[in-house]
Amino acid sequence: MVNGIAPREAVERLKRFKEEFEVRSRKQEIYYLGEDLFGLPHQQYPKLEKTKQELGYLAQLYDLYVLVLETIKEWKDYLWTEVPQHIEDMRSQIEVFSNRCKKMPKQLREWPAYHELKKEIEDFSEALPLLVELAKPSIMPRHWQQVQELTGKELPVDSEMFMLQSLIDANLQEHIDEVTDICDSADKQLIIEKRLADITKQWSEEAFLFGSWKSRDYDCVLSGGRVAEIQEMLEEALMQLNTMNAMRHSLPFKEPLQNMITSLSEAGDIIERWVKVQMLWTSLESVFTGGDIAKQMPMEAKKFIRSIRIGSRSCLSRLRHALVVPCCQNDLLQQLLPVLGQAWRAARRV
């Protein structure tokens, strides 16, 4: 055995020596049979026996060396889209390789082939968890851009021909902490994105309920129970949105988050004013539509009745069964509530 030979050259030499050994071993068997045939004592070939032992010894290292290199080369040829379905197989196989490498005889651990073999296994073992992370659905183009900038390698993941080889060549294992942080951030961003989508969907469907008031045969007042429910849901949604907006992982969603916060905050303000205006109206109506005050102050009573018609028929009744957010964004409603509120507060002071 000659130490210090380059691993790939050693593999070629070992292959040739095995072939030569097989030739000599077959000759030995033929000689052995001939010696038996003629009753001759068996000739001993100590060098051949020693060569057999050495070849078997070296085969432990170089057979594994070749197997590992060929297997990893096969993995590198996978299309990136195929990698997720092979992850578990790669994980279990690389563990087998690692265990076999650790059990290698002590004498062989000084050979260059052993060091190269060990490095191949360790590099892939370190890269594998990162491949698992990068294959998750939370990884978006913006995250790949971050990985490209980190490694300085072009990673055209959108290409149908993008292969695992490109990621391995990017030496991900040299940036374990940074890549892990990118993937963790992607997971948190996906949670934010999904929750924002849920809240957006919810408030594209939530609607007011309206009911009639006294003798009116049409819906003209907000349903108190439903309003309280909506206000509670708005408070909960705004708390979640503000919490997400404060997270460092929310940067890609800042604009939609802030837009949603603004829309729901404004809706909450409008509902609060609307409820107050409605309470003014319902409390004053009996005062100005009947009894002594209506007779004593006919002009004020007429103004109040006119404002009721504007408020209940002209605007509020048109919004019945309306969706909460679009309804609160209605220009007519936003303009009318302050006017009605001011008029009815003035009427209350009369």
Helix-and-strand structural type? mainly alpha
Catalogue the unreliable spans: none
The order of strands across the largest sheet is 1-2
Number of domains: 2
Radius of gyration: 41 Å
How many strand elements?
2
- Count, helices: 13
H/E series, N to C?
Answer: HHHHHHHEEHHHHHH
Main beta-sheet annotation? 2 strands, antiparallel
Q: How much strand content do the residues show?
A: under 5%
Please estimate the helix content: over 70%
Shape: rod-shaped
Distance from N terminus to C terminus (CA atoms, Å) equals 114 Å
- Mean pLDDT over the residues: 81
Task: Explain the overall architecture.
This protein folds into 2 domains: 7-187, no CATH class; 203-349, Dynein motor heavy chain, linker domain, N-terminal subdomain (Butyryl-CoA Dehydrogenase, subunit A, domain 3, Up-down Bundle). The mean pLDDT is 81. The protein is rod-shaped. A two-stranded antiparallel ribbon has the order 1-2. Helix 11 runs antiparallel to helix 13 (331-349). The chain is built from 13 helices and 2 strands. By secondary structure, the chain is mainly alpha-helical. It has helices at 7-37, 46-76, 83-102, 112-134, 141-151, 164-169, 176-202, 224-246, 254-288, 292-296, 298-315, 324-328, 331-349, and strands at residues 210-211, 221-222.
